[in-house]
Design goal:
The protein is α+β, with helices and mostly antiparallel strands and about 725 residues long. The strands form 5 sheets. Strands 8-10-7-11-9-12-13 form a 7-stranded mixed sheet. It has a 7-stranded mixed sheet with strand order 23-25-22-26-24-27-28, with helices on both faces. A hairpin with a 2-residue loop joins strand 19 (about 530) and strand 20 (about 530-535). Helix 10 packs antiparallel against helix 13 and helix 18 runs parallel beside helix 19.
Length: about 725
């Protein structure tokens, strides 16, 4: 990839001359889709990002949100309000070329975004998307990505507590690796990526600079070629988690001593990207002497030093009198430290051995890229073509599908308890992290649903936001804020851009409805390969808060009534199985199901019920429908005997709809007080009594005149699809 002719003309007009090789490379990377959001920025104004709890919204390395005051503790330990940071990134192309290093460095990058805000990372969530599970190359990518995430996250001591894994044929040539990070800070420790004052020094702390990751930003802004796994390997960074752990702890000391005026991690476009964006945000410039950068490879030239995306590096703005103390701390943690230049009131300039190689206006470099005006085609609604499949066969296929099966093989490789904050770990609807500083639990849910958004981008994206909120409410928490990773194919194709626009508008619509501001995120386009474009994939990482850290279990106890909040069986003329795992396994098509009329009220009521003393278990109903949700609640010691009402005509078809439709915003509640649950949802959502818990670990589902019967052991066997194949 090189600087486009039209872009070069703008640069020449601004500079009054031809750009130097280093300048041209800087513009190529910083004006790429990956950095400048040239195709997506015109759409992103749809998101509501402001709220009384939002301290810093989109535009910085990570967003900052104030936790609501707890009933028991109004402030943090030192009197300062407790803040969390939220960020999410994609490392899609690198993870295809080198799944281990691509995924590992994706973790490292989002953690450093957290450090940039003066925060300590406390939790990770990974959302992963691959081609069909039975494809050998997909399994190779899957295993490598999980190994990379687990290696890096475990080594740096940040727990991976939530996430999702999906398999879909349209990811065959381009998997997605989206990683979110939550950090903890307070108003007194907060740092931003806005340079403060001319005369302050720019200090580079961390690993030495090498030649890895050259051109990574531009590489991420083009379709994957057939030979990408070999030809694009130099664009993939190589991570060192042990250096990152040292950087985490050094950053903590630098922030604690108040030595940092502003900070930016070195990610896309390396030093050039981080340093120019830092000063541009402050309306300032910089002078950098590139030969001062500590390097780990010999004979590096100016362009390589400027653009290499070597990992585990931070750029700090430091007052001159604090530089030596910063150096002392860096050396104590065995980290390299270079004073590479200073903040100025002029242009962004870089010299190499006395020769000026870059002299541009920092704001023009960072913000001057023209936006793309692209054509879009609205996606068509799928028709109804339902398969004729027996209920028992469909139950087995859906419950054992890799998409709905247990993800234990994945999360058991992650240390999800390091840091001793994890109250509810992976495998549940949402994780809960204990924020003891505020006596609150932070619920975290992350994921998307490619079947949903492939069938209906707008409605599917609305459903994804609602499902994440329902996951959080199932643990008794109230949605607080969200970040998104918007993944799409080549936006120059009108049908692809139309689907991408649909997921943006859908997420924006539902998040606003739920009063969950979208405070930051990432866009990854050109996820297109010889196999075709990916489905539009809006990964959402949402957090919610609650007093305390306790939450109802997902699993039922041996005694109590089971209720369903939401629709059970739909009338025959309203059958909507679109986007369901049932259709993915059985073939056919259908419209996407309608969403609840009052989704915010449903979420609020569910959070209240989940915290009631009479509530024994709560489980969100989503992928796989009621069939999977019921199966997941059964244990060796407690089972369920339920009856699902269906319409009288076309009983088999209605039964399939009742068992497998995936309308979001529904939940199963096991309670000792059914009347209280009905009252809580009065006027909000229907509540249907399905049956009761048993003490024998069996699952019996009566549906019309049919019965599906199994037990906990049989369910475990069905749901062990991934473990069975990979071990």
């Amino acid at each position: 990839m090189s600087l486009a002719d039209s872009d070069r003309e703008l640069v020449v007009e601004e500079l009054g001359r031809e750009p130097s090789p280093a300048e041209a490379a800087l513009f190529e990377n910083l004006w790429s889709e990956h950095c400048a959001y040239r195709s997506s920025r015109p759409l992103l104004s749809a998101f509501e990002s402001e709220d009384e709890q939002v301290v810093i919204g989109p535009g910085d390395d990570a967003a900052v949100v104030a936790l609501p005051e707890s009933e028991d503790d109004e402030t943090g330990e030192d009197g300062a309000s407790t803040y969390i940071t939220m960020g999410i990134e994609s490392h899609n192309h690198p993870s295809y070329v080198d799944p281990f290093d691509g995924a590992a460095t994706g973790v490292g990058g989002i953690v450093r975004d957290t450090l940039s805000m003066g925060a300590y990372p406390i939790a990770l969530a990974d959302s992963l998307y691959f081609g069909e599970f039975d494809d050998e190359h997909s399994k190779y990518l899957f295993e490598g990505v999980v190994e990379g995430i687990s290696h890096y996250g475990n080594c740096i001591g940040v727990p991976t507590v939530a996430g999702s894994v999906d398999f879909h044929p349209d990811y065959e040539g381009n998997p997605l690796v989206n990683v979110a990070c939550v950090g903890l800070t307070d108003e007194e420790r907060l740092v931003t990526a806005v340079a403060q004052e001319a005369g302050n020094k720019l200090v580079l702390v961390g690993n030495g600079t090498g030649r890895d990751g050259l051109g990574g930003a531009s590489f991420a802004s083009e379709d994957l070629a057939e030979d990408a796994e070999t030809e694009d390997r130099p664009a993939v960074q190589v991570g060192d988690p042990y250096a990152e752990k040292l950087l985490i702890e050094a950053n903590e000391e630098l922030v604690a001593e108040g030595l940092i005026e502003s900070a930016r991690d070195l990610g896309a476009a390396g030093l050039g990207g981080a340093s120019s964006e830092l000063v541009a945000k402050g309306g300032l410039g910089a002078h950098i002497e590139l030969e001062r950068v500590h390097q780990r490879e010999p004979n590096m030239n100016a362009l390589e030093i400027l653009l290499a995306e070597s990992q585990e590096r931070m750029c700090y703005e430091v007052e001159p009198e604090n530089v030596e103390r910063v150096r002392e701390i860096a050396e104590r943690f065995d980290l390299g430290c270079s004073v590479i230049g200073e903040v100025t009131a002029g242009n962004y300039t870089c010299t190499f051995n006395g020769e000026t190689v870059v002299d541009v206006d920092a704001f023009f470099l960072g913000e001057g890229a023209p936006m793309n005006d692209l054509a879009s085609e609205a996606p068509t609604q799928p028709g109804t073509d339902l398969p004729d499949v027996g209920l028992e066969a469909a139950f087995d296929a859906v419950v054992s599908s890799p998409n709905t099966a247990s993800k234990r093989w994945v999360y058991r490789q992650y240390d999800h308890e390091v840091g001793v904050r994890t109250s509810v770990g992976p495998g549940d609807d949402a994780a809960i992290i204990a924020v003891r500083e505020a006596n609150q639990g932070l619920a975290i849910s992350a994921g998307a649903a490619p079947n949903w958004t492939a069938a209906a981008p707008y409605e599917g994206a609305r459903a994804i936001a609602l499902e994440n909120a329902t996951n959080i409410a199932a643990k008794g928490a109230t949605p607080l804020a969200a970040v998104d990773c918007l993944n799409g194919g080549n936006p120059e194709k009108p049908e692809v851009y139309g689907g991408f626009k649909g997921i943006v508008d859908g997420l924006a619509d539902m998040c606003e409805t739920l009063s969950a501001p979208v405070v930051g995120g990432n866009v990854s386009l050109y996820n297109d390969s010889v196999a075709g474009p990916i489905p539009p994939t809006p990964t959402l990482a949402m957090v919610g808060s609650k007093d305390g850290y306790d939450a109802p279990s997902l699993s039922v106890e041996s005694d109590g009534t089971l209720l369903l909040v939401g629709d059970v069986g739909l009338e025959d003329d309203e059958l909507r199985l679109g986007g369901s795992e049932y259709l993915a396994r059985s073939g056919g098509s259908d419209r996407f199901p309608a969403l609840p009329n009052e989704p915010a009220a449903v979420v609020k009521a569910l959070a209240g019920v989940a915290n009631a003393e009479s509530t024994l278990a709560v489980h969100d109903v989503s992928h796989g429908g009621l069939a999977v949700a019921l199966a997941e609640m059964v244990t060796d010691d407690a089972g369920l005997d339920v009856s699902i009402p269906v319409s009288e005509s076309e009983r088999e078809t209605a039964a399939a709809a009742a068992l497998f439709h995936e309308q979001p915003g529904r939940a199963l509640i096991q309670t000792e007080s059914p009347a209280a649950v009905v009252e809580a949802f009065d006027g909000v959502a229907p509540v249907v009594e399905l049956g009761a818990a048993t003490a024998d670990g069996t699952l019996e589902i009566g549906i019309g005149d049919r019965t599906i019967a199994t037990d906990a052991a049989g369910i475990r066997e069905r749901r062990a699809t991934i473990e069975r194949e990979l071990e």
